[in-house]
């Protein structure tokens, strides 16, 4: 019997997308059931020297804009044509900032292979008048594919340097598919495990960015480690309560996986959301997040501010604001309704969540 061979395409080529390409490309070379080549769709950009980013990646094997100094692997092929990049793939890795996903999915309808499986590394959600939708379910619904997620304590630049870390794959039903994702992401320095809780894993990865903004405010106000730990604890509780209200099937244990408390810790200590929120608080809320993002992140995108807005919209639609003082206050600070110092004044005021119990 001829063994089925899997072809992987990565949709996205930012900081984390490029590291995902490096991890996967190192494995497809070693594993017989995967084609060596890993295609990476690149949102084309012209760099200051006039060269196209795709051409440079294919020439130098390095994403000079989003992951400078790291060799991706000679079997990574950058492709600026989205439809062309996916046409032969039966394993699709989605890893772009979440605000671009609706448009990307629309362009891909009817263009992917019938046996394709997907995984989302994207943190964020879409909030429509009908209610919130996780990115994995947007992908599943629009493209008619099964979609797992991979989240974890994963600051991309550290994994690019092959420093040990862990991640969690969340899946719905098919454990065999989840194990295939574990196989192509896992390396001796990147340990991946799978849990049957796709919503729990994805909500952990999404909501921790809001807590990281709160942690950045605390740093910017120089309030010290006890305060930051308190904000992280309150934030973790709100993450758990919100996730379980949205999806009662979410498991408590998921919060102890890499995607849960570990990702929360690393993001509150070192991530980009923390960094920009720190600068925002130091400016007394006078400089906008938009301006600070452009100045400090050089083309990388901030997720926490838009996620805070999406979460706030869900809280507003459902009348849950008073039960989630940290989530609510982060948004109100981001839009200038409250000063950064409100993060500590308001976050301790959690009241009862009627359907969940005390926070
Ligand atoms: N960087 C990390 O450490 C990290 C770790 C874990 C998860 N993530 C998540 O991975 C996802 C992708 O983040 P990243 O760090 O790879 O990206 P990034 O923020 O480094 O880069 C932004 C990317 O968006 C692309 N882009 C810009 N405009 C676009 C458009 N109109 N349409 C499509 N693409 C466009 C850029 O080309 C670039 O590839 C996010 O959801 C993020 O939360 C990031």
From TrEMBL:
<dbReference type="GO" id="GO:0005829">
    <property type="term" value="C:cytosol"/>
</dbReference>
<dbReference type="InterPro" id="IPR006168">
    <property type="entry name" value="G3P_DH_NAD-dep"/>
</dbReference>
<feature type="domain" description="Glycerol-3-phosphate dehydrogenase NAD-dependent N-terminal">
    <location>
        <begin position="7"/>
        <end position="175"/>
    </location>
</feature>
<dbReference type="InterPro" id="IPR013328">
    <property type="entry name" value="6PGD_dom2"/>
</dbReference>
<dbReference type="InterPro" id="IPR008927">
    <property type="entry name" value="6-PGluconate_DH-like_C_sf"/>
</dbReference>
<dbReference type="Pfam" id="PF01210">
    <property type="entry name" value="NAD_Gly3P_dh_N"/>
</dbReference>
<dbReference type="Pfam" id="PF07479">
    <property type="entry name" value="NAD_Gly3P_dh_C"/>
</dbReference>
<feature type="active site" description="Proton acceptor">
    <location>
        <position position="208"/>
    </location>
</feature>
<feature type="binding site">
    <location>
        <position position="100"/>
    </location>
    <ligand>
        <name>NAD(+)</name>
    </ligand>
</feature>
<keyword id="KW-0560">Oxidoreductase</keyword>
<comment type="similarity">
    <text>Belongs to the NAD-dependent glycerol-3-phosphate dehydrogenase family.</text>
</comment>
<dbReference type="GO" id="GO:0042803">
    <property type="term" value="F:protein homodimerization activity"/>
</dbReference>
<keyword id="KW-0520">NAD</keyword>
<feature type="binding site">
    <location>
        <position position="303"/>
    </location>
    <ligand>
        <name>NAD(+)</name>
    </ligand>
</feature>
<dbReference type="GO" id="GO:0051287">
    <property type="term" value="F:NAD binding"/>
</dbReference>
<dbReference type="GO" id="GO:0005975">
    <property type="term" value="P:carbohydrate metabolic process"/>
</dbReference>
<protein>
    <recommendedName>
        <fullName>Glycerol-3-phosphate dehydrogenase [NAD(+)]</fullName>
        <ecNumber>1.1.1.8</ecNumber>
    </recommendedName>
</protein>
<dbReference type="InterPro" id="IPR011128">
    <property type="entry name" value="G3P_DH_NAD-dep_N"/>
</dbReference>
<feature type="binding site">
    <location>
        <position position="272"/>
    </location>
    <ligand>
        <name>NAD(+)</name>
    </ligand>
</feature>
<dbReference type="InterPro" id="IPR036291">
    <property type="entry name" value="NAD(P)-bd_dom_sf"/>
</dbReference>
<feature type="binding site">
    <location>
        <begin position="272"/>
        <end position="273"/>
    </location>
    <ligand>
        <name>substrate</name>
    </ligand>
</feature>
<feature type="binding site">
    <location>
        <position position="156"/>
    </location>
    <ligand>
        <name>NAD(+)</name>
    </ligand>
</feature>
<dbReference type="InterPro" id="IPR017751">
    <property type="entry name" value="G3P_DH_NAD-dep_euk"/>
</dbReference>
<feature type="binding site">
    <location>
        <position position="123"/>
    </location>
    <ligand>
        <name>substrate</name>
    </ligand>
</feature>
<dbReference type="GO" id="GO:0141152">
    <property type="term" value="F:glycerol-3-phosphate dehydrogenase (NAD+) activity"/>
</dbReference>
<dbReference type="InterPro" id="IPR006109">
    <property type="entry name" value="G3P_DH_NAD-dep_C"/>
</dbReference>
<feature type="binding site">
    <location>
        <position position="301"/>
    </location>
    <ligand>
        <name>NAD(+)</name>
    </ligand>
</feature>
<feature type="binding site">
    <location>
        <position position="43"/>
    </location>
    <ligand>
        <name>NAD(+)</name>
    </ligand>
</feature>
<feature type="binding site">
    <location>
        <begin position="12"/>
        <end position="17"/>
    </location>
    <ligand>
        <name>NAD(+)</name>
    </ligand>
</feature>
<dbReference type="GO" id="GO:0046168">
    <property type="term" value="P:glycerol-3-phosphate catabolic process"/>
</dbReference>
<feature type="domain" description="Glycerol-3-phosphate dehydrogenase NAD-dependent C-terminal">
    <location>
        <begin position="197"/>
        <end position="345"/>
    </location>
</feature>
